[in-house]
Amino acid sequence: LQDGLRSAFKTLRGQGRLTESNMREGLKMVENALLEADVSYSVVKDFMQNVTDKAIGQDVLKSLKPEQQLVGIVQQALIDILGGDSDPSLHLKPDVTVLMMCGLQGAGKTTTCGKLARLIGTEGKKTLLVAADLQRPAAVQQLHIVGESVNTPVYSEEGASDPIAVCQNAVKHARDNGIDVVILDTAGRLAIDEELMNQLKTIDLKVQPDQVYLVVDGMTGQDAVNSAKAFNDALELDGVMMTKLDGDARGGALLSVKHVTGVPIKFIGVSEHMDGLEPFHPDRMASRILGMGDILSMFELAQREFDQEQVQKTQERLQKGQFTLDDFRKQLNQIARPGLMQKMMGLMPGMGELGKMLQGGDHEKEMRRLGGMIDSMTADERANPKLIDNSRRQRIARGSGVSPQEVNELLKQFDSMATMMKGMASGGMSGAMDMMRK
Ligand code: GDP
Ligand code: MG
């Protein structure tokens, strides 16, 4: 999708102004890109209608480049569909709040239960996880392991066969024990079936959860739409959590699920680890779908994981328009942790290649390799990479035991990173977007 949209906008580049006909052409390409991304056809149709209505009759602003105007319109329409009014709150009550998680088998319910418990714990509230998936033999055990990893008690009943009774008993147990939030981990099936839906409906009726959330696997594309519709018809969902939006998952499913159910998307799962849950931001997702990288998420991640003081220093240098290979080297040290590098690279526009270089292989070795190249540069070269001509490149390559091409690759990646950083320092988000569009 990202490549598709990017190229769609590229064809608009260089045109003096946005005319009705060249915009139509661009919109047609946007439509194709969305379809390619597995957004369901009816959703795409509505979306294109929405965008066209907005765009036609709108004066072309002289201060904007044509593609900026179309990007703006498409982006706003994406935000509208995804839920401009999004609300990541779980609406916890002062006494016990019961959350029910449902979804197909393997969607990520149990994992998301743990992530939510962890999140709620950071707000100083007590959670009880409830093992209501009695379908799979190992499900109860799995929830106990998850609960342990997030320091959260798990309610389960030995040899139980009635999930409704387990849920009811658990809620009572929670009330008696000063628990704030009860999370019901229900059973899923491989596909929607009557028995599963009836069981869930009965729990809904008898236990009366305050919020019912659907957990959807973000990698399932078109299937996500069908199951979301079935669950919403049966249970009147309060929200959706979409998992597995790390990796190559397409944002397309999100668009469709939101459109089909109309319920807010609350959280997205971005890793299999317990800290891999993020509030859903429609604006960021729209940017991501448009291929601009999820810059805000990246900075949030950076802020959480980096040494704050270092971040501060780097930011000060950025404000002055300075971002050197020395800073880059320091960042490499900071992020020399498994997983984090790939995560950041995946989120950054134009960094796909470096991310790929780091993927799969020996992570630390790659870090050493990149760091080694920078270490083989003189202080002057690090402050001003433009100095690095052919002979210097040869020397750096020899010094760090790599090929001159690898040095080139590093410099190219550094360049796009520096450009983005400078754009961000001078003009915030929109500044960065502008720099990237050039
Ligand atoms: P359930 O059957 O719905 O309870 O699904 P599980 O919670 O057991 O998750 C199924 C698989 O998906 C497990 O291997 C999880 O580690 C994985 N998983 C869940 N959420 C995410 C996510 O956000 N990202 C990734 N990469 N994996 C996830
Ligand atoms: Mg489960």
TrEMBL record:
Classification via CDD domains: SRP_G (cd18539)
GO-annotated cellular components: signal recognition particle
Key words of the record: Cytoplasm, GTP-binding, Hydrolase, Nucleotide-binding, Ribonucleoprotein, RNA-binding, Signal recognition particle
Binding site for GTP: 103-110, 185-189, 243-246
Record bears the keyword Nucleotide-binding: yes
Subcellular location as annotated: Cytoplasm
EC number from the UniProt entry: 3.6.5.4
InterPro entries in the record: AAA+_ATPase, P-loop_NTPase, Signal_recog_part_SRP54_M_sf, Signal_recog_particl_SRP54_hlx, Signal_recog_particle_SRP54_M, SRP, SRP54, SRP54_GTPase_dom
Molecular function terms, GO-annotated: 7S RNA binding; GTP binding; GTPase activity
SUPFAM superfamilies in UniProt: P-loop containing nucleoside triphosphate hydrolases (SSF52540), Signal peptide-binding domain (SSF47446)
Domain SRP54-type proteins GTP-binding, residue spans: 264-277
Enzyme class name: hydrolase
Biological process (GO), any one: SRP-dependent cotranslational protein targeting to membrane
The reaction(s) this protein catalyses: GTP + H2O = GDP + phosphate + H(+)
Subunit (UniProt): Part of the signal recognition particle protein translocation system, which is composed of SRP and FtsY.
Note on domains (UniProt): Composed of three domains: the N-terminal N domain, which is responsible for interactions with the ribosome, the central G domain, which binds GTP, and the C-terminal M domain, which binds the RNA and the signal sequence of the RNC.
Function: Involved in targeting and insertion of nascent membrane proteins into the cytoplasmic membrane. Binds to the hydrophobic signal sequence of the ribosome-nascent chain (RNC) as it emerges from the ribosomes. The SRP-RNC complex is then targeted to the cytoplasmic membrane where it interacts with the SRP receptor FtsY.
Family to which this protein belongs: Belongs to the GTP-binding SRP family. SRP54 subfamily.
Protein name per Swiss-Prot or TrEMBL: Signal recognition particle protein
Organism name: Bremerella cremea
Gene name linked to the record: ffh
